[in-house]
Design brief:
Elements: H1 16-27, H2 40-59, H3 61-65, H4 74-99, H5 105-113, H6 130-151, H7 157-185, H8 189-209, H9 220-225, H10 233-250, E1 261-263, E2 268-270, H11 276-286, H12 290-303, H13 305-324
Antiparallel strand pairs: 1-2
Helix pairs in contact: 2-4, 4-7, 6-7, 6-8, 6-10
The chain binds 3-hydroxybutanoyl-coenzyme A.
Residues 48-49, 52-53, 56-57, 60, 87, 118, 120-121, 140-141, 144, 147, 208-212, 217-220, 223, 233, 283 line the site of 3-hydroxybutanoyl-coenzyme A.
C-alpha cells in the first residue's frame, strides 16, 4: 500500500541517537513538522491513520447525503447540506495533512478504491429514515469529537492543526443531531419510536468506532509512545459512555445493552460485551453497505476522471508555454 511509505518498516535502531532526540522532543511537547527527522515507523503510522481518517470523512458523506433531497423541512435541508459539505472539507484537510508525509493523493485514493485501505466501520450501515441523521450527529459525531479532540494534541503538527478546525465544525455537527433527537424524543409517539429505533441500530457501531479494546489494539502502543494518540481506545469509549448514557436516559430513551450498568465506585457506565466478530467482518468488507459505499466512491472517482485529465493537460501546456517564452509566465 502506498509504495514503501506504508510497508511495515523497522523502528530505526540504526540511529539510536536521533531516535533518542526525537523522543525527547515529543516528551517535551514539541510538534514534529514535515521537514523534521522522524522514524520511518512514525511516518508510516501517520500516513496509515491520517489517510484512513480522510477516507472516513469522505465515505461518511454518503449515508447522510442520501437524505439531503428528502429532508423534512428547508431548515433541516440547510443544516444537513452544511454538515455534509463540512465532512468533504474535513477529508481535504486530512488528505493534505497526509501528503506532507510524502504520500500522494493518488496513492491514498487507489488504496481506498482497491480495498487495501480502511475507513471507519460506522459508515457501513444504512440510514433508514431522518431520525438516523439526528442519531448520527448526536452519537457518531460526538464519538468523533472525543477522538479528534484527543488528536488535536497529536505530536505531528499538521494533523494536530487540522483537528483544531475540524473539531470546531464537529461540535456543530453534534449539536444539530442532538437538537433533532431531543425534538423527536419530545415529539409524537411515532417520532420517539423512530429515534429510539435509530439509537438501537447505531449504538453498537458507534462503540466500535473507537477501535478494538486496548488489549487487542496492535497500533496503540507505538502511537501512545510517540504521542500520536494521547488516550487509548477504551479511555475514549468510556468517556463517551459516561456522557451519553445519562443524556439519553434524561430524554426517556434507552440504550440497547441489557448488560449496561453503573459502577458506583468508579463512576463509570460499564457496557456489555461488544461483538468484535461483527466488527472485523464489517471492516473486512462484509458489512450491510460496504459494497454500496465503495461502488459510490469508485463511480465518483470515474466521473471525475475528465476533470483530472483536463487539469493535467492544462498543466502540461502551461509548462510548455513557460518553457517557450523563457519561463516569463503565460504567453498573452
Ligand atoms: N473502523 C475501521 N477500522 C478500524 C476501526 C474502525 N472504527 N478501529 C480500528 N480499526 C482498524 C485499524 O485501522 C487497524 O487496522 P490497520 O492497522 O490495518 O489500519 C486495526 O483496526 C487495529 O486497530 P488499532 O486500535 O490498532 O488501530 P488504531 O490504533 O489506529 O486505532 C482508531 C483506531 C481509533 C480509528 C485510530 O486509527 C484513530 O483515531 N484514527 C483517526 C480518527 C478516525 O479515523 N476516525 C474515523 C471516523 S471519521 C469521523 O468520525 C467523521 C465524523 O465527521 C463523523
Amino acid at each position: 500500500m502506498y509504495g514503501n511509505s506504508l510497508e511495515k518498516v523497522r523502528t530505526v535502531e540504526e540511529d539510536p541517537e536521533r531516535l533518542r532526540e526525537f523522543e525527547e522532543r515529543i516528551r517535551s511537547g514539541e510538534k514534529i513538522e514535515p521537514g523534521d527527522w522522524m522514524p520511518a515507523e512514525y511516518r508510516r503510522q501517520l500516513i496509515r491513520m491520517i489517510s484512513q481518517h480522510a477516507h472516513s470523512e469522505i465515505v461518511g458523506m454518503l449515508p447522510e447525503g442520501a437524505w439531503i433531497t428528502r429532508a423534512p423541512s428547508l431548515r433541516r435541508k440547510l443544516i444537513l447540506l452544511a454538515k455534509v459539505q463540512d465532512e468533504g472539507g474535513h477529508g481535504q484537510y486530512l488528505y493534505h495533512a497526509a501528503e506532507t508525509l510524502g504520500v500522494t493523493r493518488e496513492e491514498m485514493i487507489d488504496a481506498l478504491l482497491s480495498g487495501k485501505a480502511k475507513y471507519s466501520n460506522v459508515f457501513n450501515y444504512p440510514t433508514l429514515n431522518y431520525a438516523d441523521v439526528g442519531v448520527i450527529g448526536y452519537l457518531v459525531d460526538f464519538a468523533a469529537i472525543l477522538n479528534q479532540t484527543m488528536l488535536a494534541r497529536c505530536s505531528y503538527g499538521p494533523y494536530a492543526r487540522a483537528m483544531v478546525r475540524i473539531c470546531a465544525e464537529e461540535n456543530f455537527h453534534k449539536k444539530q443531531g442532538q437538537d433533532l433527537v431531543i425534538r423527536m424524543a419530545r415529539g409524537t409517539p411515532t417520532q420517539k419510536a423512530m429515534v429510539q429505533d435509530a439509537i438501537n441500530r447505531w449504538w453498537w457501531p458507534t462503540l466500535m468506532m473507537f477501535g478494538p479494546h486496548d488489549s487487542d489494539s496492535p497500533n496503540s502502543e507505538v502511537l501512545i509512545r510517540w504521542g500520536i494518540k494521547t488516550k487509548t481506545n477504551d479511555e475514549l469509549r468510556q468517556a463517551f459512555l459516561n456522557q451519553i448514557v445519562p443524556e439519553l436516559h434524561a430524554l426517556g430513551l434507552s440504550v440497547p445493552d441489557p448488560d449496561l450498568r453503573y459502577d458506583e465506585e468508579s463512576g463509570n457506565w460499564i457496557h456489555g460485551p461488544i461483538d468484535w466478530d461483527h466488527f472485523w467482518r464489517v471492516i473486512k468488507g462484509h458489512g450491510p453497505c460496504n459494497h454500496e459505499r465503495m461502488q459510490a466512491r469508485r463511480q465518483a472517482h470515474e466521473d471525475g476522471r475528465w476533470v483530472r485529465e483536463a487539469l493535467a493537460a492544462y498543466a502540461s501546456r502551461q509548462g510548455r508555454n513557460d518553457a517557450g517564452n523563457g519561463g516569463e509566465g503565460l504567453a498573452l
